[in-house]
Amino acid sequence: MPVPEFHHEGDLVAVLTAQPLDGPLDYLAPEGGCLHGAFVEVPLGPRRVLGVVWGAGGGGFDIKKARSIIRVLDAAPMQPDMQEFLRRAADYTLTPLPAMLRLATRAPGLGNPPSMQKIYRLGDATLTRMTDARERVLTVLRAHGGLGFTLKELGDMAGVTASVVKGLVAQGAVQEEDTPRDRPFPRLDPDLPSKDLTEDQDAAAAHLCAGVRGGSYGTTLLRGVTGSGKTEVYLEAVAETLRQGRQALVLLPEIALSAEFLTRVEARFGAKPAEWHSGVTMTERRRAWKMVGQGDAQMVVGARSALFLPFRDLGLIVVDEEHDSSYKQEDGVLYNARDMAVLRASICDARVVLASATPSLESWANAEAGKYDRLDLAARYGAAVMPDLAAIDMRAETLPANRWISPTLQSAVNARVAAGEQALLFLNRRGYAPTTLCRACGHQIGCPHCDARMVEHRFQKRLICHQCGETAPVPTTCPSCDAEDRLAAVGPGVERLAEEAATLFPQARIAVLSSDLFGSARALKEQIAEIADGAADIIIGTQLVAKGHNFPLLTLVGVIDADLGLQGSDLRAAERTFQLMRQVAGRAGRAERAGRAVLQTYQPEHPVIRAILAGDEEGFWRAEAAGRREAGVPPYGRMAGIILSSPDMQAVFDLGTDLARRDGPLRSVGAQVFGPAPAPIARIRGRHRVRLLVKAPKGAALQSAVADWVGQVRLPAQARLTVDIDPQSFF
To answer: Is the pLDDT assigned to residue 384 strictly greater than 50?
Structure first.
């Protein structure tokens, strides 16, 4: 690894801060000098702010007026490849570089002096009396080669209480030391035995490991049916990365998936990796950030923002469930973590593994074009087999009003519960009901700040806006006509489905899995673990349950409304419905017991439903690709979304009209602009929203054209303009 450039005391250096400025500012290097990439504290007006030494200063002013860097922080310097990644990500997403740096410095207390804590290591005294509990503690310490552990870590690993450890300290067999809280993570052992792999898994793992050993960039699409053991395959690539002395990053789409995954990592490598997501404490986030930069965290498991950690030598990025829409950041800096993973790996000569049972069309097309390697795992691991798929034609079912579980599905659930198995009822709608309607005047209760309906959450006794988070008590009278007792819930959410299930299956234990019902990631993880152990007979859930969870007793999946995602004009509606239905169906029969998935639909002849039932994934992708190619839309064309917003509706429409008229820079690259038009949700948090959509040929220089285009207009007071390159949704 090249030694970073050193700036001597008094040299003029450029420091990039996360403040909303045009770019780096010049400062004098501090006493003792500083390295290129050093994290520093600098004066900015009356404040002190965090920054990074970005290069040599630009000068062009009286150097006597330059202020000095206050101090260099106790953190490893940012690597040149990380700086290049931030620059190119900023250019691609049309994001100011300081905003991109803010993503890379989102660890609390980076400028604080290190705090201390007690850790426990192996001592040298010989015990006169040994017990099983004491032996377990000493075995753990010996196995980890002198590493220190906190009291809780050591107690958990050895399965003993704190008093056992304290007793060993008193006798000198264990040493208690004060150490900085930001300490290295336990070393992972890549040579511990792995699970037995099938012939297909072994071949796929060998291919990935060969790529890692090559030490150059490459991306592989790892496509495997649900339950085929993709995780075990890419963990072998992680093992090879660790053998090469490089770091690995595994991105997961959902925090709730991390608990089960961390257990698998610990079983494979003998210790847990670093974690990076919103469920981690502030102390652990700072520790992870610092140790990643020092190379003392070999592996990170995290959410999309983990891409912006300051890795010292990143050799592998795995994007698990790569098709998942949660990899797209939809506010602040707008980026797709899947695409940014490929960019980052290409800069630092790392490998990328995109793992999915139902790949995104973009990744499928890149594999078809030869840009990505492709590996397929066609069979489930071990005794498990893919579930049978069937449709329930709801046009032939007799169903009372305000009922959504058909008699056919009810019979199937009863049979599974009677056999001691689990059934999942899937509905991708949170809350109790999506609409609250007055039967007297027809008024639908909406959010006062958004053009969106308030969703009733009966478990919380609140109405909630899913756009801005506004909440209100459930009213007893109509806010429009004051009629009493005439408000009715219209349509089902998972809470209402649970109410119906309790009536239809009175003897069954029912659990509801929906992200809004849990106050913390820990509570959600605990509920998922309990369900996997058999604590529920019927699971009712949203798309949360489709994301990689393994419920061994689950043998029946019933999709309540398979048509829900087919509504609307979203470019990716068919793709998302296909992916979600296949993922949900794949939850059934993942152990020895055979599984079955049934889809309630009013459109059994719809091409997407037919493709799901036939299991013809390649046929679906080919047909979907042909339609997109003919329309010239992603991945066979380029798009950018422009959202204008303002409290003044007329002002924002005038701005959109003016912008649309100035489309010369777009036409110069063959692009078209559509709009302005009200965004599908035309008001959020009191701001009126207007949307323009840019469509361009595949090879167009879209970013520079859009930058020139929007740079022509001056935003009126309180107006905002947001650019979304490669939009995933069109709200």
So the answer is: no
